[in-house]
Structures are given as structure tokens and as C-alpha cells.
Design goal:
Number of strands: 5
CATH superfamily of one domain: HIT-like
Strand content: 15-25%
Radius of gyration: 15 Å
Structural class: alpha+beta
């Protein structure tokens, strides 16, 4: 039987920067969220927008906090769209295994990987960019979000 997520410590609240860096890289910090670029770039530009404080569900946020958090998600999405040149963005809010409010922003291309289907959170064979290309994507997103 799986552990009860309500009694387990939140891995997002307790993670050290080294743990974060194994699966993603920090892009920037906004008023209500932190933005991370996922290292697996099967969907080039895929980011996660993580609420700074601990909450599990959108309805746990006060209306003004919800509006501010979702405005930040939209701000990041606009930059991901511009930087990636994708045809469509998908948004995913799961939390089954990591019960801390976060939104995956997933660029998709017509006829590309998982078009018309949900994206695979952890594909068997991910796409990992050369360090220079990953760093350039990180920089492009950071600049875009900070200017936007």
C-alpha cells in the first residue's frame, strides 16, 4: 500500500538545491512561485512553476493568492511559448506523488511527441540536451520571464 501523502514530509518543501538540480534547474523566483526547467527536454522548454508555500490544491489558496499564482503561470507560459516556438502548450497539475501545488508547462508541436495525448511525466528514454544547449534554454527563459 502507498504511503499516505498527507502524513509524508513534502519533498518540495524539504528538498535541498542539490536534489532539485538532479531533475531540474532553477530559472527564476517570482513573488508567489519558483520556476524550474526540467532536465528531460523531450518537450523542449518544459518547465514547472512551483508555489513557494506549501499547499496541495488550488482551492486551498485565497482568491488573491490564486489569481497571483495563476498570473505567474501564464507569464511563464507566454515566455515558454515564445522561446520554444511550439504550436500549443499543455498544462498539468498532478500532485499524486508530490503533493505540493505545481504546474507543468509542456510545449507541444503538431505531429510531434504526444500530440493529441497527455505528455509522459517520466519517459523511459528522456531527451537530455548538451550542457551548452540546456544552459542557453535556461538563460533564454530567465531573460524572457524577468523582462515580461
Amino acid at each position: 500500500m502507498a504511503a499516505n501523502p498527507s502524513t509524508e514530509p513534502c519533498r518540495y518543501c524539504t528538498a535541498t538545491p542539490a536534489i532539485w538540480l538532479s531533475s531540474s534547474a532553477g530559472v527564476t523566483e517570482l513573488a508567489h512561485s519558483r520556476v524550474f526547467l526540467v532536465r528531460d527536454q523531450t518537450h523542449p522548454g518544459r518547465c514547472v512553476v512551483l508555489l513557494k508555500r506549501h499547499a496541495r490544491e488550488l482551492f486551498e489558496l485565497a482568491p488573491d493568492e490564486l489569481a497571483a499564482f495563476m498570473a505567474e503561470v501564464a507569464r511563464v507560459a507566454q515566455v515558454v511559448h515564445r522561446v520554444s516556438g511550439c504550436d500549443k502548450l499543455n498544462y498539468a497539475v498532478y500532485g499524486d506523488l508530490s503533493p505540493h501545488l505545481h504546474v507543468h508547462i509542456v510545449p507541444k508541436w503538431l505531429g510531434g511527441v504526444a500530440w493529441g495525448e497527455p505528455f509522459v511525466l517520466k519517459p523511459a528514454e528522456g531527451v537530455f540536451l548538451a550542457p551548452e544547449a540546456f544552459d542557453q534554454m535556461l538563460l533564454n527563459l530567465k531573460r524572457g520571464i524577468e523582462v515580461n
